[in-house]
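Many introductory courses stop at the sequence. We go one step further.
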Amino acid sequence: MVLRNVAEPLEEFVMTIDEIKEMLKSGRHNTYVGYEPSGPIHLGTLITLYKLKDMIDAGFHAIALMADIHAILNLKGPRDLIEEVSMTYWKTVFHELGSPEIEIRMGSEFELSPNYVLDLLALSQRVTARRAWRAMSVIARERDDPLVSHHIYPLMQALDILYLEVDVAIGGTDQRKIHALARDVFSMQIPLRVKKYVPSAIHTPLLPGLTGGKMSSSLPRSHIAVHDPPDIIKEKVRQAYCPPGFEDQYDEEGKLKNPILGIFRYLILPMSKGIRLPRSRAFGGGEIEISNYKELERSYVKGEVHPLDLKNFLAEYLIREFSPLREKLLSDKSLIEPLYRLQKWQKERGLFGEPEWRDALRSYYPYLGEHIS
């Protein structure tokens, strides 16, 4: 359960298997994922959300950290609005699609305390600017002109682990360097006000964007948000990049580049005992039974499944999966309205282009009406 949906090779993306096996022998341990609650929750976010549910089932106490101070450092919005989004939209989604047992914590609860700030300063004296930026560069998209805040960010993320008393930190593969930094610096003889220990970490794969490249909260066509209405889900899935089976499904680094296959691999098949996939007449008609991802990829590459077969199944699956959440948001617009205001704030400051903003607005119409702009 702990290793389900973890990136491979395990020896690189689990720090370390032996440590976690030892933990499972006794006691209840804390695990967490830190999130910048500065945009919509999309399919890429669900990989770690479902991982928190796995960890609960494996006996861990799971924490979702709403890293509001980190979001401010990343220039994503004002603190009061980010906090409001965290405790409405984000909390609702995590409890509806993940588990009501996930504890929601705000970073500002402890990150502004005198002890935390003094510990942060102590860390800054032990980590070089180059090492801090190396840990952060993947997340900050390889900026040419990193800000001082980008150097502070990974130090805070490391310190969060200790202040939350987390034994196993979880993140995407882009978080690996930050967790490696935390393990290194906390093994040093460095005086801190918080209890110091070396945490373990596991890393989940990153889902490719629907249009190719990375999935981004500020590019609505690159992702499917959990609140997207059915017509938009169908449209995005229909237009998504999905190379035919005879083409290579992996990039030069060996990473899956087909987002449709990626969604089946990381979000559908691990959560089910198998699926019955309807096939178009041109590909034999009827249904094909798929019990795991390797079977699906093999059938797709052999030409037994058409891209449209995958897309039709996927769209209906997601619409059905998110239906209870949509009903909850429709019944109480105060759960999603703060997210709209945050994204509007971001648009006014240039984080969205006009076409992207029009795409984002469409997803809010069922909840807030078509008068919004």
